[in-house]
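Sorry to interrupt, but I need a hand with the structure work. Leave the record below and I will have a look:
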Amino acid sequence: MTAEVKLLDQNTANQIAAGEVVEKPASVVKELVENALDAGADNIEVTIFEGGTQYIRVADNGSGMTEANARLAVLRHATSKIRAAEDLMSLHTLGFRGEALPSIASVSNFTLLTRPAEEEFATSITINGGEDMECQQTGGQAGTTVIVENLFFNVPARRKFLRTNVTEGRYINELLTRLALSRPDVRFKLVSGDKEVLSTPGSGSLFDAITALYGKKVSDELLKVDFTGSDIKITGYIGKPTLLKGTRQWQTFMVNGRIINNRMMSKAIDHAYQSQVPKSGFPFAVLMVEVDTHSIDVNVHPQKSEIKFSDDGVVYRAMYKALTDALTRPMSARPQQELELLPDSELAVFKPVGQGVITDDAPVMPALQPKPQPKPAYADIFKPADVPKPAPVYDRPVQTSVWKEPEYTYTPPKTEPVYTINETREEFKKQDAVTDNAIGFTDTDNETNTIWPIGQVDKTFIIAQSEDTLYLIDQHAAHERILYDKFVNAHNNIPAQTMLMPLYIDVTVHDVELIEQHREDFLRLGVDIEPAGEAMLRVSSLPADIKADGAEDFILEITRMLSEMKNIAPSDLRQNMLHMMACKAAIKAGEVLNMRQMRQLIIELCNTEHPFTCPHGRPCMIEISSAELYKMFKRT
């Protein structure tokens, strides 16, 4: 039996379209905020109750609409963004389909209040579930306000698929966070249940927007991205490899101002951070990509969250280059600010007097004189022979019998020479080199003349400084990064050492089979390993940096890795092997280093492309600027 074909009525068509455009309360907020941005608004306020399921209000100070335009705006396929299909190739607005307002109005109690600045009265339009439209003139501020109540009240099948109010509210918060990052020149505000949960300054600075949304701890760990190619420009900020999240929630991509999801761009981030972050972590990224509008197609997704590039390869290469450039010069993205020093009168001054009593007429210790860039004191490390030791500040009488409260007598301290960085370098040259054959460092100084070691803590961490920064360095992680970069740059020419006597290791039959499958790959990495029986391996050569006493552990680690990673690709095998080689050959925690060895380690670390993290993604160098030190001691 042939069914009769009928044209659907306007309301039914709008509800069908709403299934694609309006998926949840966050979809409503997205469409309304994008309309506000297209209208030129620089102040947008969003208010929600019950996660947006009961009430959503979006108010802006944009251009507003006349009554005639407002009546058309709630009709399907009515838009001011385009006039013909050709306009899609040069689109500069976020919206263009003309489906948002009628779709939202068809599944809610909808109110639109709008007024251009030059009009005396505002236009108010109310629609209940796509029906009973009422239009009247009323008072109102310039701009547009849209109120959406009882979302999906007439579509119960859609309403029951909504999440909890808390979850739906979180979706709206995350959406507005990304919209605020895409337009740092617009002031955004989100109020949920009479509580302000989001606010941005609208200063035009992306850095200020990130600070307002994610906090100062995040913004202090950012690296600036600024890349310009022939057909593409990429700007924004990425996090240092130590700033990680368990999901991609901290990654935001904008193409020509439009927030998008793109797997290719996510892959570019993963590859740029390779060997710097753990496999379970995702770095922070806010990236703005500008391309020719003719090279993209935005009309490929109902919610306009995906786009197509005419050449994905160009975008990928530009993204990878922009990110690696930023990561190889890991300086803080925070704008430099002058320190506001507190006067000495506001600093705590200790007044030692007899019997431990503090009086107003007690002698006062000389107050610290803060300087914008204090010089480092190396007197405790290098003391010229003609400089006498300073007299003790306090003379304590020796008590041999009954203990008594000591009497304190203040003696002004004698001054000792304070060395500058250049003077310290000259002192280094005067010292006799203390060699340690166990660690093969050479004193090959280069242009890295600004960071100097101070000492070693717990035989594990190196303390160093430049003119205005303190550095804490993990010696094992730092040497691991140095060796890994050296192995990577060696490609297939990793130096190998032939063992005087082959090493025989007992393993399982399965391990022998795995080693035999990858023997050629191991040879390229300087490891000559082959079966020597049903359950035995013979090792004839190892990478030159692997010590003989650690050879067996190194080979057993290889077999363990192959057993855990089935069907491993040659590229992954190489990367894991390089990680393992660098880890096994690196200086261990607990090894004592002399000053020259620490200095050489710092030089080689600073000459690597990623001096702040080891190949496994752990931090190997932490910097503390003088500004942060002043704040720690409450001097700002």
